[in-house]
Amino acid sequence: MKLKGLFSEINEDFPNLVDDRQREIQDIVSFHGQLSWSDLHTKPEMQLRSEDVEKIWKDLLRLNNGEPCAYILGEKSFYKSEFLVKPGVLIPRPETELLVERALKITPEPKRFADLGAGTGCIGLSLAKEWPHAKGLLIDDSKKALAICRANVSKMDLSNVEILEAHINHEHPKDQGPFDLIVANPPYIAPNDARVESSVEKYEPHRALYAAEEGLAEIRQWLLWAETSLNTGGHYIFEFGQGQESKIRDIIPQDVWTIVECIEDYQKIPRFYLLRKSRND
After folding, report:
1. Helices then strands (H, E): number in the chain?
2. What's the mean per-residue pLDDT of the chain?
3. How far is it, in rounded angstroms, from Cα 205 to Cα 207?
């Protein structure tokens, strides 16, 4: 089947997907057809193998049922790398790349940094790739997530990171720190938040999404962890949800932390706090 014929059939059979998830359709076609983005738009006469068309169609049916494209293809682009992704781990979001970009500008290459709730490792491994002489500790309490994280470490051939299974609320790796930088994307969605997309609610791990106290419980606990784990003058940068900016500001101990910056995402929504530890323990 020619590429233009495939897209014609997709338009007929999956009109809702064409309207709402065009980019993901193109990702699936590109993945199985081994095509570049340029090929998709400039080579309509390109012939696709029948076995590839069959795979494309199967994945489009999964996409039509609401399954996230990253789980279907088993990978997700983030910052400068492709990360392995499977059910049981949070899918990396484009806006979280801003956390990586801001962290890289905070300070020269740190000696040690930590990534809390590492998941796929997209934040910590992206930093480790940019900072080959820094030592990174990636922490998560999910065995599924850490298995995927370890696979991404191997895929990226990184030797300057360590993986630790630990519950951030209760365990402190005293022999690992102190750190010059801590980064985190904690669970911050309030239970029963009506704004959560149905596919996120159905497929992505709730442990990595939801937190008690209107989404603030983990943010509060991780602040305490960072307080005891950072060098004085070290930085902590973390993501939070829409509308939480002022509530989080109220729970940041002003005698411990200096608020350096509240960073907006691509839609100009406050999304990250950058803090500097200003007190010794």
Report:
1. 13, 9
2. 93
3. 5
